[in-house]
């Protein structure tokens, strides 16, 4: 297979028609095989599993791209950037979906797609009295990086530019930027160099590392594809240029670059055979709302991933992610909002109030879906969606394919400008997904013995 690719590549320079054919083959092979092959690196941003759920910035974007192409997604996990580019060279993958920083060598060999915000490299080092604050102080220091990486290239250039003669140590083949930062945090190596956004994310977990010293200049970032894959490049550019993707990237950047759930696995100790450290509390308070305790646990999982210290960008706090005003209504304040039992108890009281809001929905299982949706978005938009369902001949007491459809339509001017709508425009996809995922998680929990 590789020899065929090399032969075709050799023909490209001499015959533009062959080049066009190669371009067509690249995208056509994805569509014909009904599979988009993505390579990425396991870590807190790109791709990881959390409690049996696949997550990650690059994973979610790749899934969205595959959906837009109407093909399946296949993920290939590797250890580092060198392995990713090797898979691309061998035509094992179609896209290296990882935040590569652009260098002359990479730009010459591959096309960058899905451009993200420009960023720079920083020195990751222990935070103590010996912390380096100027590149001049790098002299005679040892910095460990992946061999052949953009980080190694930048350090070599810095050595040449300044004549500082610090030591550049190549890491073992199994290591990558993420693992090297962990080794600094654990005191096992003296320093490394990493993308500033990745380094700052790790600092949220490893408090005793320093990421302030800028090593490089601003660089473009993005995924890599074959130079010859121009049709695939056009498809990605069309997809990534849409307004929806811009919004999705913004949401995913917040989700993974500021507070990745990857680190929750390190913080939360779940007893063997349990769903969470708080099973006894879910069992205690679920009876107050006549719910299965596993459903209450599922709500907490999708709100905070069982991290009792969690605070969202909007100010929602604790296991049940209660907004400050809601928390205050049920007796919580800054001093006690992170108390697991008090937070669960207040969350249950809020669920009780939502149950009253939708008390006219007689079917309990249907009412639960409306409560879940309201817990995620607030009841106002759900009431609007019920009004729209009623007006357009759907059942306002049935969630799936009835009210949920009109919650999704609230992003369209025809519907959010309708006279029955009181609370304006709303993007309902997150809420619709929340209901489905919470119910699915509850079902998984019930299957556990």
Short characterization:
50% of the residues lie in helices and 14% in strands. It has 449 residues and is an alpha/beta fold.
Provide a descriptive summary of the structure in words.
It contains 20 helices and twelve strands. It has helices at 2-12, 16-33, 57-69, 81-89, 104-109, 150-162, 177-185, 196-203, 230-240, 243-258, 264-267, 279-286, 293-304, 324-329, 340-357, 364-377, 379-391, 399-409, 413-416, 429-447; strands spanning 35-41, 48-50, 53-55, 72-78, 95-101, 110-119, 121-126, 142-145, 167-170, 192-195, 209-210, 219-226. The strands form four sheets. It has a five-stranded mixed beta sheet, with helices on both faces. A three-stranded antiparallel beta sheet has the order 10-7-11. Helix 6 links the parallel strand 8 and strand 9. Residues 1-25 have low confidence and may be disordered.
Q: Main attributes?
A:
Lysozyme; alpha/beta; D-Maltodextrin-Binding Protein, domain 2; disordered N terminus; 3 domains; 5-stranded mixed beta sheet; 3-stranded antiparallel beta sheet; globular; 449 residues; 12 strands
Low-confidence stretches: 1-25
- Which CATH architecture of the largest domain is right? Orthogonal Bundle
Main sheet properties: 5 strands, mixed
Estimate percent helicity.
40-55%
**CATH class placement of the largest domain:** Mainly Alpha
Shape: globular
DSSP strand content:
5-15%
User: What is the arithmetic mean of pLDDT?
Assistant: 88
Number of strands: 12
State the domain count: 3
Calculate Rg over CA atoms.
Answer: 25 Å
Number of helices: 20
Distance between the termini: 48 Å
SS-based structural class? Answer: alpha/beta
Strand order of the largest sheet: 4-1-5-12-6
């Amino acid at each position: 297979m590789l020899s065929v690719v090399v032969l075709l590549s050799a023909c490209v320079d001499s015959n533009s028609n062959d080049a066009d054919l190669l371009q067509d083959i690249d995208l056509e092979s994805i569509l014909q095989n009904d599979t988009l092959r993505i390579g990425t690196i396991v870590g807190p941003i790109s791709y990881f599993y959390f409690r049996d759920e696949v997550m990650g910035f690059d994973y979610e974007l790749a899934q969205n791209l595959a959906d837009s192409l109407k093909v399946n997604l296949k993920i290939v996990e590797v250890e580092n950037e060198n392995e990713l580019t090797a898979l691309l060279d061998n035509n094992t993958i179609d896209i290296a979906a990882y935040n590569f920083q652009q260098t002359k060598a990479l730009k010459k060999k591959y096309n960058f797609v899905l451009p993200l915000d420009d960023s720079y490299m920083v020195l990751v080092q222990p935070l103590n009295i010996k912390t380096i604050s100027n590149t001049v102080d790098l002299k005679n220091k040892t910095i460990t990086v992946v061999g052949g990486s953009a980080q190694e290239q930048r350090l070599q250039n810095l050595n040449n530019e300044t004549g500082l003669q610090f030591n550049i140590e190549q890491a073992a083949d199994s290591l990558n930027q993420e693992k090297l930062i962990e080794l600094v945090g654990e005191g096992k190596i003296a320093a490394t160099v990493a993308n500033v956004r990745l380094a700052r994310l790790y600092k949220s977990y490893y408090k005793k590392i320093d990421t302030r010293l800028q090593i490089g200049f601003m660089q473009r970032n993005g995924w890599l594809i074959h130079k010859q894959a121009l049709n695939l490049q056009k498809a990605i550019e069309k997809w990534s240029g849409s307004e929806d993707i811009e919004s999705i990237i913004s949401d995913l950047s917040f989700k993974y670059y500021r507070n990745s759930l990857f680190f929750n696995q390190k913080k939360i100790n779940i007893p063997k055979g349990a769903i969470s450290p708080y099973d006894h509390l879910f069992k205690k308070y679920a009876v107050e709302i006549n719910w299965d305790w596993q459903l209450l646990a599922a709500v907490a999982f999708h709100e905070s991933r069982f991290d009792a210290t969690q605070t969202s960008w909007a100010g929602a706090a604790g296991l049940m992610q209660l907004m400050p005003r809601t928390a205050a209504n049920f007796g919580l304040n800054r001093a006690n909002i992170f108390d697991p039992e008090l937070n669960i108890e207040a969350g249950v009281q809020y669920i009780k109030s939502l149950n009253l809001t939708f008390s006219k929905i007689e079917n309990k299982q249907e009412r639960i879906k409306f409560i879940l949706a309201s817990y995620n978005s607030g009841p106002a938009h759900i009431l609007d969606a019920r009004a729209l369902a009623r007006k357009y001949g759907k059942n306002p007491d049935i969630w799936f394919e009835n009210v949920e459809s009109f919650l999704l339509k609230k992003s369209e001017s025809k519907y959010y400008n309708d006279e029955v709508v009181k609370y304006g425009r709303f993007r309902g996809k997150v809420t619709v997904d929340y209901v489905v995922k919470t119910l699915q998680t509850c079902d998984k929990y019930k299957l556990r013995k």
